[in-house]
Structures are given as C-alpha cells and as structure tokens.
TrEMBL record:
Protein name (Swiss-Prot/TrEMBL): dTDP-4-dehydrorhamnose 3,5-epimerase
GO terms classed as biological process: dTDP-rhamnose biosynthetic process; polysaccharide biosynthetic process
Annotated GO CC locations: cytosol
UniProt site positions, description: Participates in a stacking interaction with the thymidine ring of dTDP-4-oxo-6-deoxyglucose: Y143
Gene3D superfamilies attached to this UniProt entry: Jelly Rolls
Protein source organism: Pseudomonas helleri
This protein's encoding gene: rfbC
Active site, UniProt feature: H67 (proton acceptor), Y137 (proton donor)
Length: 193
C-alpha cells in the first residue's frame, strides 16, 4: 500500500498493490495492520476502528455533499469507487486548523483503484462522473441523524472546482442545496448528543 500526501497533509490518497495476470487482478481493499503502518510511516495518527460500511450508487452528474457529523459521532472515512468514477472532495472544517476552509479533490475510479482517507473534522462530498457509479466507504463512527450536518457544495468561499461542463444540470438533493455556507455555521453547534 502506498500513501500519497495531498495539499491538506491529513488527507491522503491510498494506492493498493494490485496484482494483474491473464486471469484478471487481485488486491487487498483493506488491511488494518498495513493501513495503520502506512499512516504512521508518513506521520499520521492511527484512526479509530471502522464500525460501519456504506455503499451507494449514483447516476452521472449526481453531486452528494458536503456532509459531516458532529462529535461524538464525527466520522473518519476511507472511500473508494468499485464501479465508474467520481471527483471526491474533502474540506477541512477543523476550527483553528492551518488549512481550515481549504479543500482537496481527487478522482477515484474502478480503473485507478485509488482510495481517499478523510479523517474526522472534514466535510466530504463527490460528483459521479459516470452513470451507475458505485461508491463504498468505511466510517469510524456510526451514522447519527441528530449529528448529521452539511455545507453547501457551491459555497463561494470554498470555491471548489467541481469538474462540470457548462450547461450540464447537476442532480443535487434539496437537503444539500439548502445546506449552510461554511461561514454560517454556528460555532456553538460543535457537539451533539
């Protein structure tokens, strides 16, 4: 497993070792020991154990996000695509962080087999670049509706460069379209029950 740092040092691309031959290919999609050793090797902490795994399917131009959960249900996420492709985005929402309000975007696909590790304290979203894109992610905390929050995907202060062609209609849920802008988030709303 190879770890590649992004512009936000705590968010890393994970490249698995893929074995190819005339029959097809094989890879370990997750090995906790190897994942932990690889993170420590680049100076990152070992995350909490993964407790939930999610799988979604999206049509082309579906945009989901930017989602996060408040403590004590804040989630670290290890995300990957098993069919199709996405442009995946992580936004640093850790108050006081040197990279607060910054974002990083990576293309994940069934062909490149890359994964993205997004620790707690980040909002996350993606846009499907192909029909029937299947997205899998492991989380370090269980989903909690009471702690679920979102930031507008088109927040002008974030200025995320989503790979969308002019004239293409994005398919975004009303909940995501009505999310708050980053500067509207109430600092008192930093914890939930």
């Amino acid at each position: 497993m190879k770890i590649i740092r992004t512009e936000i040092p705590d968010v890393v691309i994970v490249e698995p070792v893929v074995f190819n031959d005339d029959r097809g290919w094989f890879m370990e999609s997750f090995n906790e020991s190897s994942f932990h050793r690889s993170l420590v090797a680049v100076g990152l902490p070992i995350p909490k154990s993964f407790v939930q795994s999610n799988h979604s399917s999206s049509k082309m131009n579906v945009l989901r996000g930017l989602h996060y959960q408040l403590p004590p249900h804040a989630q670290g996420k290890l995300v990957r695509v098993v069919k199709g492709s996405v442009f995946d985005v992580a936004v640093d929402i850790r108050v006081g962080s040197e990279t607060f309000g910054k974002w990083v975007g990576v293309e994940l696909s069934d062909l490149n087999k890359k994964m993205l590790w997004i620790p707690e304290g980040f909002a996350h979203g993606f846009i499907a670049l192909e029909d029937n894109t299947e997205f899998l992610y492991k989380t370090t905390a269980y989903y909690s509706k009471a702690c679920e929050r979102a930031i507008r995907w088109d927040d002008p202060d974030l200025n995320i460069e989503w790979p969308v062609l002019d004239g293409i209609h994005l398919n975004v849920s009303s909940k995501d379209n009505e999310a708050l802008l980053l500067h509207e988030i109430n600092n008192a709303d930093l914890f939930c029950i």
